[in-house]
Q: What sequence folds into this?
């Protein structure tokens, strides 16, 4: 039962991003776009704590949810989520015990993800927003929002991953 917990949490966070967040938060106040990436945060933390295999599989699952729901350019989010999960899965071992290091990895992953998806959309001519506007009106506000969310999710997710690890050790006996 524990093995289905992470995919369920990713699916649930995907639903929260697409419904509740859009209702309770004005996502485009004054031209600023606040884009929640709770699902991506779960994928990043999974990659940090569980390694590349679990992170990439969860990233591909989350990316497929995004691609099938939000975009006409199929494969963009599958590729982006999978690549970001892979890049976050190989930091050194000491990162699991430090909030500051984990937040640094999260910020770097968010910047890579947002920049990569913007770049692909720009090259494919799906957007005409110049990079300066993207940086000021979307990347920075979203980065602040998601960094705060990562700081709030740090302790509960750390406890969740410790619980999953203990449960797996019990089942392996």
A:
């Amino acid at each position: 039962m524990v093995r289905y917990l992470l995919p369920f949490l990713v699916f649930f966070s995907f639903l929260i991003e697409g419904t509740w967040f859009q209702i309770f938060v004005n996502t485009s106040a004054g031209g600023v776009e606040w884009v929640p990436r709770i699902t991506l945060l779960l994928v990043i933390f999974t990659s940090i704590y569980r390694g590349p295999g679990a992170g990439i599989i969860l990233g591909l699952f989350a990316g497929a949810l995004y691609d099938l729901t939000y975009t006409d350019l199929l494969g963009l989010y599958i590729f982006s989520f999978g690549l970001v999960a892979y890049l976050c899965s190989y930091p050194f071992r000491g990162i699991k015990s430090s909030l500051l290091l984990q937040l640094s990895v999260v910020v770097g992953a968010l910047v890579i993800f947002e920049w990569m998806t913007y770049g692909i959309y720009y090259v494919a001519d799906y957007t005409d927003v110049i990079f300066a506007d993207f940086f000021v009106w979307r990347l920075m506000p979203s980065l602040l929002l998601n960094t705060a969310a990562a700081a709030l999710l740090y302790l509960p997710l750390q406890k969740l991953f410790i619980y999953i690890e203990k449960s797996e050790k019990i089942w392996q006996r």
User: Anything to note?
Assistant: The chain has one domain: 2-25+37-172. The mean pLDDT is 90. DSSP finds seven helices and no strands in the chain. Helices lie at 5-18, 20-24, 38-50, 52-70, 76-88, 99-123, 131-172.
